[in-house]
Amino acid sequence: MEIIRHELQRPSVFIDEAKLSIDYVPPNLPHREEHLRKLTQLFRGVIETPGQVSQKVIIIGNTGSGKTSVTKLFGKLLCEVAKSHGFNLVYVHVNARRERTEYMILNKILSAFQTGIPLRGLSTQELLSIILEYIESNNLYLLVTLDELGVFLKRRGEEILYLLSRTVDDQLNAQQRISLIGISRDPLFGFILDPSTWSTLQKNVLYFNRYDSCQLRDILEFRVKAAVLDGAVPTSTIDLITDIAAASGDARYALELLYNAGKVADEKGVLRILPEYVRSAKAFITPEIRREVLVDLSLHRLFLLLAVCRLLKSSEDAYITTGDLEARYELICEEYARSPRAHTQVWTYIQDLVGLGVLTSKISGAGQRGKTTLVSLPDIPAAVLECELELLLEKRRVGAKGGRRN
Prior knowledge:
It is built from 19 helices and eight strands. With 406 residues, the protein is α/β, with parallel strands linked by helices. The protein has three domains: 81 residues, Helicase, Ruva Protein, domain 3 (Orthogonal Bundle), CATH 1.10.8.60; 176 residues, 3-Layer(aba) Sandwich (Rossmann fold), CATH 3.40.50.300; 104 residues, Winged helix-like DNA-binding domain superfamily/Winged helix DNA-binding domain (Arc Repressor Mutant, subunit A, Orthogonal Bundle). The strands form two sheets. Strands 2-3-4-1-5 form a five-stranded parallel sheet, with helices on both faces. The protein has a three-stranded antiparallel sheet with strand order 6-8-7. α16 crosses α17. The longest helix has 18 residues. The protein is globular, with a radius of gyration of 23 Å. The two termini are 36 Å apart.
């Protein structure tokens, strides 16, 4: 208790560190006003003639380009506008990477209504029917955002789009109560979809470009005012963070650098976030693999990724074979007292990690017998990622008294 009291009484550079969280959506989003305006134009019919039309929109852009924040803010504001127009619109934001099946997505949507209906033992179709009956009987309208939709479609196919977008196809003049927004990082998103599905969506695609240096600076300065003590972040620190993050155009990365540099300052008992603290933070953060992606990975996907790190760290090669990877994965399963998954399941996990951008892959070329898949890491030191994974696995082991994720 003395340790805890002492730490809580120490001064901090933060006045509200939550304002730097990836989950925080500020009331204003610098340099994304045009995207909010475009979304409003697309959903104008939903507001002006509720029930007569629904809308489907696809948002495409790189990590940290503001897709999720803009969509969450738009959903919140649209609900307020709908209320002023005399009807109730409910907004639900679903991370489709985290909710990995159609059932889990529908369950997440239904949980937003707090119906008190026991959901165990229900089929996907039964869940959908409950959602439809609930919004109909309560005269509600629904806007669902499926974040990381590209990852989900690669893994599961298009059924979720059909389930949510064609709920009244067999009814004459039925109320259109469900609208959809899909978010993807994949610039080739259209190739994932059936051509007929994509043709109906092409006119409603909104692209988010990477932030440039000036825009990243504006975003940082905006958040600094809300999150950090006045005068605690010198211009030189903003300059350095901007220069580092400009290569990827990733605002999340910039904010994560600022947050972690602030934590270094707190650890040192200094009420200034100096450039050297940014460099310390950068050593353990890369824009290629976001920590929130790692946290959501199942246990055996973490084992596989750890196996990749250890093989690459001890090798002079840039890539490793899936055969070597599977052998090392089995050793790590033994280390953590878990039974390894079968070959076909391991292959599925590898494909999932490639789809998430956590691994890169290619087919072997000249100089190797036969054709085999080779895997590697994106531009991140294997030793750094290994440390992060071992910390996550230790936390998972400590908290393993609950249910297990495969």
